[in-house]
Task: inverse folding
DNA sequence: GTCCTAAAGTGGTATGACCACGGACTGACC
DNA sequence: GGTCAGTCCGTGGTCATACCACTTTAGGAC
């Protein structure tokens, strides 16, 4: 059901509902595909038998869900499925939860560990080359926190992409905004010392090698190890920060 | 950003935008919390300086995102974060993808495997008892496909819940609708013979025991084994179906 | 006290008009 | 002939107003 406010039993699908179901059906069935242009609001409202404000409410709602791209003076276009809406919805859903920025890492680990297993079986040579390229970028940008962070993300994203699973990819994109916020937040706690960064590269290399050898168990093990190390580093930094504060109140 | 159609640079936040950001901010900051009742549309439109149709567009959009519950004759209430919207958004995002009902199983495996690892560390005694209860239901409803399917889902859901990770839980709820469709679709391919069902119970029991022993590696191994067996069964059934069709065209 | 009814308040819809933006056509100018 | 400017048309964006449908509630009849 696209319409939220509805749970009654098949009465008269009041105007706005009709419009929503009308588009939902056509979007799900593929009759309306990305890039298609909708009729004008006036014609549509006439065709669907509703007033223009009602039609607009439905259209705006669909735009809010990221399904339509409505542009002033031009018209409404069907938008290609976009994970950004998912990310927004997830952010809003998880907003009231405590420690969500820590918790979202669990989802990240979940997706990536399964993705790398699939990637071991499905990754094409081009996928592997793409991942290797992100590794090169990672090495090149060790001293640049900004670029380095981007390369890090690109590496992990490339792995998920190599899994060739649309579901894993969409979910990963959906949690990406929260992942970014989490990453930014813990930048305050993590220092990139040379010893750490070199270890970081090595960890990524191990993950990549296991993947290139098409060894799922080893790849997942390496990946989990990589995550665990990062977690411990952050924890240690937090501890030492506390200790410093304790000694100099 | 809650508003999709906007990417320009800080011009005049046209009416509808103002309303959207107004509510988005108050929802994210917690100033508006679940259960709160909004002012009437007429008062709100007056207070925010927009016309009622515009105000309604924004309100309906928020309702579409599951953030508001608007009821005729009563008013608009802030809704507690609900994963059902996520599920709908995910369904619409994944609609154009081929074989999405198979692919969503990868996401399921990803979430559950990480969830059971966390559950090994975090599950309370009550969590374990809840999981055990679903196992009992599963055994009791072996001959009832309907109840059996429900018990099966309840078992896996209880594991995710025991992980005590809001993110994993929300995502699992989000993919649940697709999971259901997937389950229904492959009911046509899977026959529940006595030998299979007994094996099914045993597989679930092994998963539960490993979890109760708080052994993450073993628990994940058992869970992956359970998924793999189900996959192979389905594949074999498909093969035999094809062979039958081939022999009797 | 209980029940029914009517009024008030709420969201739902419709109409019509006007404004703002974008593109296309057409004309003049180079 | 090509290019640029202005105008016009179609589009979404907004507004005001009126009326309808549903829910609740308060008042009156019993």
Result:
């Amino acid at each position: 059901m696209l319409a939220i406010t509805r749970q009654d039993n098949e009465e008269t699908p009041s105007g706005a509902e009709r419009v929503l179901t009308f588009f939902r059906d056509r979007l799900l069935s593929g009759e309306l595909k990305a890039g298609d242009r909708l009729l004008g609001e006036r014609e549509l409202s006439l065709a669907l038998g509703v007033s223009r404000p009602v039609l607009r409410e439905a259209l705006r709602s669909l735009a809010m869900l990221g399904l339509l791209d409505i542009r002033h003076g031009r018209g409404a276009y069907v938008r290609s499925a976009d994970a950004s809406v998912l990310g927004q919805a997830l952010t809003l859903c998880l907003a009231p939860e405590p420690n969500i920025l820590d918790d979202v890492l669990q989802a990240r680990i979940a997706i990536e560990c399964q993705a790398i297993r699939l990637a071991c079986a499905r990754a094409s040579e081009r996928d592997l080359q793409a991942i290797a390229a992100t590794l090169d970028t990672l090495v090149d940008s060790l001293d640049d926190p900004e670029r380095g962070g981007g390369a890090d993300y690109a590496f992990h994203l490339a792995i998920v992409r190599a899994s060739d699973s649309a579901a894993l990819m969409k979910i990963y994109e959906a949690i990406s905004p929260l992942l970014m916020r989490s990453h930014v937040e813990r930048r305050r706690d993590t220092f990139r010392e040379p010893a750490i960064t070199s270890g970081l590269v090595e960890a990524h290399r191990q993950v990549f090698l296991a993947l290139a050898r098409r060894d799922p168990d080893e790849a997942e093990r390496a990946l989990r190890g990589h995550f665990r190390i990062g977690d411990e580093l952050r924890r240690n930094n937090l501890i030492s920060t506390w200790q410093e504060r304790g000694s100099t109140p």
